[in-house]
Write a structure and sequence with these properties.
single chain; mainly alpha; 5 helices; 71% helix
């Protein structure tokens, strides 16, 4: 007999709030994405590629938050990757406070780190790992009917 842990779903209100926070992060990240094109057009040539990389990364982050808004317990590791990256840049920005853009980056990334962490708890994002375990042990996708 194998033990298959049941995936505990959050309360509907918690799930809605958590998904809403992820959707809000996704939409809010489109603002710096669009602004990035203006920045790319105004920086010195030696900064264009760096600003382009940053600009397109905003779209990636918006997409990651959108994926979590749609399927918060199906994406194993995605929550943790987002929390690590946003937490790391937040800490680094606070540590480098005297550098240009550090204060604004620190507060913006602190905001998305906190909202992502709150949504992680509300949506029970850690349960995505249980989905992956069940998928590996049963040989079938966790959301399949069979």
């Amino acid at each position: 007999m194998t033990f298959s842990p049941a995936i505990s779903h959050p309360a509907p209100w918690a799930d809605r709030i958590g998904r809403g926070l992820m959707a809000l992060n996704a939409v809010a990240t489109l603002v710096p994405f669009v602004n990035g094109f203006f920045i790319m057009n105004s920086v010195a040539d030696d900064r264009v590629i760096t600003e382009a990389w940053r600009t397109f990364a905003y779209l990636v982050f918006a997409g990651l938050w959108a994926i979590l808004a749609v399927a918060p317990r199906s994406q194993w590791g995605l929550w943790e990757l987002l929390l690590f990256q946003k937490g790391a840049i937040t800490l680094y920005s606070f540590a480098m406070w005297d550098m240009p853009d550090a204060p604004s980056t620190a507060f913006i990334d602190l905001t998305v780190t906190v909202t992502t962490l709150v949504a992680y708890v509300l949506c029970r994002g850690w349960s995505s790992w249980r989905t992956r375990t069940r998928e590996k042990t049963s040989g079938q996708p966790a959301n399949s009917a069979g």
